[in-house]
Write a structure and sequence with these properties.
The protein has about 280 residues and is α+β, with helices and mostly antiparallel strands. The protein is built from nine helices and ten strands. The chain has a four-stranded antiparallel beta sheet. Strands 4-9-6-7 form a four-stranded antiparallel beta sheet, with no helix packed on it. Strands 1-2 form a two-stranded antiparallel sheet. Helix 3 runs antiparallel to helix 4 and helix 8 packs across helix 9.
């Protein structure tokens, strides 16, 4: 018995063993074959992952298991082994980048941490994605009666009120206030992004007749900031490029600004309903 005991790593990996799954079902399998099956299961699981770090980790482990199966056999398969080494290296590099992003985004300044927790985190935006949003935005303090958007003029910026408030005027009449953590320019940006995606699709399928210049939507109201209000600003083109580059941010950021838009519409509808109720109670004069 001692003579038949595997003594080398090759013998350990290739020796057939009984794997007992149930009392009536068992299979003969080697550690090498088990690694081969595991590799496909891990790669299949990676395709179902939304988290980029988990996806990369599963893929790297899967290629590692596949390499074990391809090496521990009577004749190693050097061609796929070399390619697996390339794939493992690529995934290791991406894991290092993702870990660095997560390390950098562990702690934000107090103001940004409050903004993230109150506005962006509920929409599912990750800390690394929020870090990238902060990198392309700029902040400014508004002067007295600072006009941040002009009705009828092209809207090229998405803005967020960080502190203070801004007044919304339509046709010269004040119709609403914008307060802390409320966006403006969101509809213009959504329309701009839809036009950009339509153009990209037309270019991909070769529909030159559908290619049009992407125009910025016009602002639907004047936005006048109060004195010393703090505003966060994203340029449409830079923000769109970021959403195109970062798959995990696309839907969550659009969901974030859409949620804010819905809240403002609901509030406006409630104000209109309250006004109608008051008019009905007063009756004719």
């Amino acid at each position: 018995n001692s003579a038949s005991k595997p003594t080398t790593l090759y013998e350990i990996m290739t020796k057939r063993r009984k794997l007992i799954l149930t009392d009536k079902f068992q299979i003969d399998i080697s550690y090498s074959e088990l690694a081969g099956h595991s590799s496909f299961l891990l790669l299949a699981k990676s395709y179902l992952e939304h988290d980029s770090l988990v996806l990369r980790s599963l893929a790297m482990t899967g290629f590692g298991c596949m390499s074990l199966f391809q090496y521990y056999r009577p004749k190693p398969l050097w061609l796929p082994l070399r390619w697996n080494a390339v794939f493992i290296t690529i995934n290791l590099g991406m894991i290092a980048i993702l870990l660095e992003e997560r390390f950098q985004s562990r702690e934000f300044p107090e103001e940004e941490e409050e903004l993230y927790q109150s506005l962006f985190f509920p929409s599912g935006i990750s800390r690394p994605d929020f870090l990238h949003l902060m990198e392309i935005c700029r902040k400014r303090r508004a002067d007295e009666c600072d006009c941040l958007a002009k009705q009828g003029a092209p809207q090229t910026k998405l803005c967020l009120v960080l502190d203070g408030k801004a007044k919304v005027y339509r046709d010269g009449q004040m119709v609403a206030f914008l307060r802390k953590n409320q966006f403006f320019g969101e509809m213009s940006f959504i329309n701009f992004r839809e036009a950009h995606l339509s153009r990209a699709l037309a270019e991909r399928v070769g529909r030159d007749d559908e290619l049009k210049e992407i125009k910025k939507a016009n602002a639907t109201a004047d936005i006048i900031a109060d004195d010393d209000a703090e505003i966060m600003i994203w340029d449409f083109d830079e923000l769109n490029d970021l959403l195109t580059e970062r798959r995990t941010l696309r839907n969550t950021f659009i969901a974030c600004i859409a949620s804010d838009l819905v809240k403002k519409l609901v509030k406006k509808e409630a104000e209109i309903s309250a006004s109608d109720s008051t008019d009905n109670e007063e009756g004719p004069t």
